[in-house]
Amino acid sequence: EFFLELTERVFEYLSGIEEVLTSDFYQHYLLPNDDYIDLKNKLDWFTFNGYLTGIEFSKKLDNHLWRLMDGETEESFISPLMYAERDRLMFEVASSLTAFFPVDIFAGATNCSEEKKKEMVQLKTRPHGIFHVQQETPVHYHFLHTSTNEEFTVVKKSFNQPFDSKQEEYWIATLAGWNNEYYISGLCMPSPYSGEEIHHQNLKNQHS
User: Is 91 exposed, middle or buried (0-12, 13-18, 19+ CB in 10 A)?
Assistant: First the structure.
């Protein structure tokens, strides 16, 4: 009874002196964007700076950096590899505390329809592999997955730098489907494989 009474008095004291400031920041910030890049930037902030996942996933990212440095990774590779790991953590790694993925928690917190929340959760399953760039328009690349023969229309601006598809036909990439379009998500690089090497690499990836 002593502790119950003490607790009540503490709450009464705090309520008398503390003014709680409220903000509609999250109500507006946690609206999903039509553009995947903007959506991903919000998810990045939520994952690595938000109080629900920030401490755990920032630590995971720091640990990955230390592993790269301990492995004597070439300095020029560290930044793109860290970018790829940052992307992977947001979509493909569950929290060891809650067993939820950051994108799951983010979807649950957003102020949108259940259909849009479901579309966000489905971002955990993203096409990955070696793609053949078959066509190019002013705003899209046409990607063909060399293993599954699935076709994807990829938004051009999701590349950091547009490229000449006639010069660099094959790319290793991860794609994200959002709002009826596909975007590059994470590390994307020209494929070092060609011809029969691509077939053998695809077989290797299927059994890895």
Answer: buried
d(CA 146, CA 138): 23
Give per-residue pLDDT as tens, 89-127. 999 999 998 899 999 999 998 888 999 999 999 999 999
| Segment 164-174, tens digit of pLDDT | 667 678 999 99
- Kindly compute the dihedral angle of the four CA atoms of residues 192, 194, 200, 201, in this order, to the nearest 10 degrees: 30
Can you tell me the distance from the alpha carbon of 72 to that of 95, in angstroms, rounded to the nearest whole number? Answer: 28
- Tokens representing 142? 């046409």
pTM score, two decimals?
0.80
d(CA 115, CA 108): 12
